[in-house]
Amino acid sequence: MSAKVRIASFVILAGCLLVGAASAQTIQINRENKTIAISTTDEATAVADIAAVTVGFEIYGPDSQSTYADAGKLSQAILQALHKAGVDDKNIESQSQGLLKNTEFDEKEPLDQRAKEQFIFRQSWEVSVSTESAAQVIRLAIAAGANKTGDIDWRLSNRKTLQAKAAEAALVKAREVASRMADGLHVQLGALIYASNQTPISRIYFAGNTVGSSSETVEVSAEAGTPVSAPTLEIRPQTVREEATVYAVFAIE
Fold it and tell me: Could you count the other beta carbons within 10 Å of the beta carbon of residue 90?
């Protein structure tokens, strides 16, 4: 990616000022203190190794008590299927649960059918597993009755390493731009004398939600859980991007 440079201030002894504009970088050259200061942004990428899978269900019932009781049985069945698949409790986090009075009916729906759908119970969890296990978790959860399942939030188990790579790339770019500016001034670029980076921004391309959770992963056995005749889904992990902005000050000679 080519560098776009904005010259914020350009001071040469008598105080001559030159300003140009672009969005990516800010450069300041000062002959009085013999420095070039640059703010630049770059990124690093890696394939996600954690799949945070949304597992959930929605059921209807004629009254609140029976609907809640049926939801409890289904909830236990889904968690048992996940446990049999090797998913630990620490990798299962509740997202939402609730019992509601049903107020939305199809106008063509028979009255006897409406009587069976007076209440709705919804529950969902976030299940963190390895990316290789995501499809199997979805398969087993659906087999156990989880009819609102499949959304995946892709994550990295070691984000700090990727953040460091992004900051390193931004610093390399800063030195390259500073070197070109020094050549234009007919001076020699010296050592880096100061650098700092802003809080990186997490980017997941083509992904859904980005909600924080545990970074631990588990492996799911393909033989565990309830057998399902349907083939396992083909799911591929997405690319995670970390962006870092670095402010660097270089000496000039």
Answer: 10
pLDDT tens across 66-88, in order?
999 999 999 999 999 999 989 99
- φ, ψ of residue 201 to 5 degrees: the values are -110, 125
Q: What is the pTM for the complete model shown?
A: 0.68
Q: Which domains does the chain have, with CATH numbers?
A: 5-47+158-204+242-252 (3.30.110.170), 50-155 (3.30.70.2970)
CA distance 173 to 203: 20
Token representation of residue 127: 């299940």
Reduced to 3 states (helix: H, G, I; strand: E, B; else coil), residue 74 is: helix
List of residues 6+ apart from 108 with CB closer than 8 A: none
Smallest CA-to-CA distance from 7 within 16, 157, 22 is with: 22
3-class secondary-structure state, position 246: strand
